[in-house]
Amino acid sequence: TNSNPSHGPFHQRAPSKIMWRTVRGMVPHKTPRGAAALDRLKCFEGIPHPYDRKKRMVIPQALKVLRLRPERRFCKLGDLSAQFGWKHGDLIQRLEGQRKVKSEAFH
Hints:
Number of helices: 6
Number of strands: 0
Radius of gyration: 18 Å
Mean pLDDT: 92
């Protein structure tokens, strides 16, 4: 059972691409309705320019402390990406630090 790994399956390394692919598995992406829903989905690492000035809100139903029982195991998408070979985590952290300083001055 020889196989050539360059023929796939291909695994994306960036957290935004992993998230996009995960949502794609939950959506009927082969139908026009599902394809339109995927076109509307936007995934980013960090918070890019047009959204960094918007007011953010907390969704209580999505909080980890409310959704997971204490003994359950979990992982963070950034850690998973780093294990897959994503090399830009430090850059995103640095840029997010700069964005938070500007955001404090803005708000």
